[in-house]
Amino acid sequence: MTQQATAPQLKKHTIWQSGRTPDPCAIVLFGATGDLAQRKILPTLAHLIHDHPQPETICIVAFARRPLGDDGWRSMVLDSLDKYMPADDKLDDAGKQAFAQRLFYCQSNFDEDEGYQRLKQLLEKLDKEQGTGGNRLYYLATPPDTDVEIINHLGKAGLAQPASSAQNGNGNGNGKKPWVHIITEKPFGHDLESAKALNKVIGSVFREDQIYRIDHYMGKETVQNIIAFRFANSIMEPLWNQKYIDHIQIVVAESLGIENRAEYYEHAGAIKDIVQNHVMQILSLTAMEPPADFSANDIRDEKVKVLRAICAMTPEQVAERTVRGQYTAGVLDGQRVIGYKEEKGVDPNSTTDTYVALKLYIENWRWADVPIYIRTGKRLPKRSTEVMVQFKRVPHQLYSQEEMKGMKPNRLILRIQPEEGISLLIGAKKPGAANDLSTIDLDASYKTVFGIELPEAYERLIADCILGDSTLFIRRDEIEESWRIIDSITNAWKQMGPETVYPYPAGTWGPKEADELIAKDGREWVNP
């Protein structure tokens, strides 16, 4: 009888930065009864508080319209934890009850002045009774069109800045100045003009160092490891330039469709949903210059320099360097799935892009003439996010074509999801007398190598916000530079006919026109 090998038990990760103890605080969750809060934020907070205990109190206050009260709200949250927390992460009864005691409810419409005064009174009460010390974290888990209203009401109610009389600790004070932070979710605007307007509003109420524009991709370990891989290894940084790199590919592939998000997706499409935020963040980390140090602003200074070096496209360049597509009915994982235009809530004549392929150039010394190829799409064969760096071939090849027929170019692949890791493809000689070459894959999975469970992206980002570390959050100028690039593409698309939205069957890697985009440069897509 053979015994089945069991997977090794992963060690718990640490979430609080070394030497940093979180302050007590009240987290005010706007839109607390909505889908994002119930599916992601509340389970993340439950895990954070339960698995990474801290000496200070963290309370969670819901600010929402429904007439629930504390007990109704607590019951709703516990139901969500049962439903959405992973099976191996669920809390026992004692853990759930301990978490429930941290939950409080403030009922109000977002446009109700009196509601914000009730919130202010509740927070002051928690300062006295729970020792939250005047520290506030506002999380806008709300539709983007409510952000301005909430922000202005927080300012009007005097909730945007710390109260001068607030004390940290359990009412005794510990000499620290109280803080107020605010997290805003994507999308941050829908074009450059709206992003600037939103930045102006939030900047009139909160200081920039209080504002945490969240992109959950920045919380993924592999995204953060792009910096470590580049700047902690002497063998890589000398090669990280146009002299040795042929081109870079970034792919964000999704197997799912729009999942009842037609109202949002019809106005956004793949380019605004994925490229403007996730892809631009990954690209800026991949291509940036070494920062002076690891302070938040130095890292973000270098990221924004990359975005500034990407020129806005002319309409002629958009026609030449971009491809947009839309999925039709097809087969995915053996199941028949409907096309985008058959999805509930989608205009039957929609020209919304569910797929985008494009080629960018970074106009600086490091990346001169190195094309950056980007792909993202819905209903592709698998879910995967990767950065592929392809190196140039050796300047003089000693081996014959016959001996090299099993060879692929040297490639470095940074896998961001779902299986985080790094892969390096190099050439090697096959055993035997002949000089036949082949490609071997030096592959490392983060879980396997370190034996540590990976933190969930939201968990890392919320913890950093509590600590006041904005490194992984998006600064105002990053947002605006990214929209500048995207606007140049979408504005040109508006002048192009519906025939330039190319169909592709669900379960394929996109329209043939995307293959032609890269093939005309003598290259090919590398699929995950």
TrEMBL record:
Its EC number is 1.1.1.49. One of its GO terms (molecular function) is NADP binding. GO terms for cellular component: cytosol. Residues 228-525 form the Glucose-6-phosphate dehydrogenase C-terminal domain. Residues 28-225 form the Glucose-6-phosphate dehydrogenase NAD-binding domain. The active site is at H278 (proton acceptor). One of its GO terms (biological process) is pentose-phosphate shunt, oxidative branch. It catalyses: D-glucose 6-phosphate + NADP(+) = 6-phospho-D-glucono-1,5-lactone + NADPH + H(+). Substrate binds at H216, K220, E254, D273, K378. Pathway: Carbohydrate degradation; pentose phosphate pathway; D-ribulose 5-phosphate from D-glucose 6-phosphate (oxidative stage): step 1/3. NADP(+) binds at R65, K186. Belongs to the glucose-6-phosphate dehydrogenase family. This is Glucose-6-phosphate 1-dehydrogenase. The gene is zwf_1.
